[in-house]
Amino acid sequence: MRSFILKIFLGLILSIGFTEANAQVFPKIIKKNKSTTPATETQERKNIELRGFDQQSYLRTLSTITDSIIFENNVNLGKVRSIVSEDPNVMIWAPTNQLIKVSEQVQIDSIWITAYEYFSSWDSKKIDIYNFDPKTFQDSVNIRLYDPFFGYEWKMPLSKTPVTSTFGSRWGRWHYGTDLDLVTGDPVYSGFDGIVRVRSYDRYGYGYYLVVRHKNGLETLYGHLSKFLVDVGQEVKAGDLIAKGGSTGRSTGSHLHYELRYRGLPFDAQDVYDFDEEKIVGPNYLITPNTFAHVVKARTAAYHRVKRGENLGSIARKYGVSVSTLTRLNGISTRSILRIGQNLRVR
Q1: In the chain, what's the furthest Cα-to-Cα distance?
Q2: Strand intervals (E) in 21-114
Q3: Which sign does the torsion angle of CA 223, 228, 269, 293 carry?
């Protein structure tokens, strides 16, 4: 009997041991409150959100990485561009609708490049900056004035364009533009797509005037304005309102003095426009050495033989030059005494 009880007791102990040995232990699950965020994580997130943005570093990196992508087949920033090297038959402008000038820089799609690097020559103070000698110009250049395929159009500079004075000799001096009648305050429009290069004032000449640089190598000048409506470096489209007409500077009445220039030299705008019919002659204009024959003639050295009763002032007025020009060309001063029969260089 005792042995039977002992066997039962031992069997119970062994069954308990095996049951515990084979039991599966599950990890304790702790439910995390999602609404609470550790203090360290919150501080890190604030640091990220409040970190300053280094604009200059970003622009430098963007310029280095994306120049070749954005301007591929359009603008080669690694090559100094000039109006001679530009292809006047391809109307491709930098891919932007807004250019901004800061000092002597322009901004193209947030990539900063100096104006000199992009345009080869860029000056927002002077009209003729190209140092072009027409005597050495022997080729013909086909200028693409507009191209609807690329979306580049043309517009007349005024709503109505009655001509009051033409290009050529006037009152003993050369008139480099075409004068178009208007009433002070009339709107003045950009003739082609381009960028405003000069916005200035000439008391004894153009008055308030603008010079707009165009992709095809031309520049247009708008003189005797009463009000500016654009800034230097601003991109404009053909037909955009850029100024109000007036009679500032050397002017006898309200009108627009309108010039077309190639490499800084003016030529007859009526070779390009039919102002009476308010239309342009065609999509192309051929510039030849004869285009600047008047400039070559004007720059040819000329001399005047001094006559009795003449002085520097009367001679200067006769040839349409300044007294300072005469003194500089002849190495004299305003106090120099002129001799009858003396040869003075006037050009």
Answers
A1: 168
A2: 100-102, 105-108, 111-114
A3: positive
Tell me the HSE value of 297 on the side-chain side, using a 13 A CA sphere.
9
Mean pLDDT calculated for residue range 222-248: 95
pLDDT of residue 222: 98
pLDDT tens sequence across 141-160? 899 999 888 888 999 999 99
CA angle at residue 26 from 21 to 27, to 5 degrees?
130
Among 138, 264, 143, which Cα is nearest to 213's? Answer: 264
For the chain, report the end-to-end CA distance as a whole number of angstroms.
149
- Pair of tokens at residue 162: 């009655």
pLDDT band at residue 181 using 50, 70 and 90 as cut-offs: very high
pLDDT tens column, 187-211: 999 999 989 999 999 998 999 999 9
For residue 163, pLDDT over 90 is answered with yes
The 8-class DSSP code of residue 233 comes to: T
Phi-psi region of 109 (alpha: psi -120 to 50; beta: other; left: phi over 0): left
Whether the Cβ atoms of residue 145 and residue 285 lie closer than 8 Å to each other: yes
Q: Is 189 helix (H, G, I), strand (E, B) or coil?
A: strand
| DSSP line for 282-337 | -SEEEE-GGGGHHHHHHHS--EEE--TT--HHHHHHHHT--HHHHHHHHT--TTPP
| Res 283: pLDDT | 93
CA nearest to 94, candidates 217, 228, 195, 242: 195
Copy the structure tokens of residue 38.
């550790």
> Token digits for 153?
């159009």
- Domain positions in the chain: 55-124, 148-293, 301-345
Structure tokens, 147: 């191209």
CATH placement of domain 148-293: 2.70.70.10
Average per-residue pLDDT in the chain?
Answer: 77
Residue 329's SS3 state is helix
Q: Does domain 301-345 have CATH number 3.30.750.24?
A: no
For residue 97, the model assigns a pLDDT of 39
Q: Which residues contact 161 (CB under 8 A, 6 or more apart)?
A: 180, 273, 275, 276, 278
Q: What is the pLDDT of residues 278-301, one digit of tens each?
A: 999 999 999 999 999 888 877 776
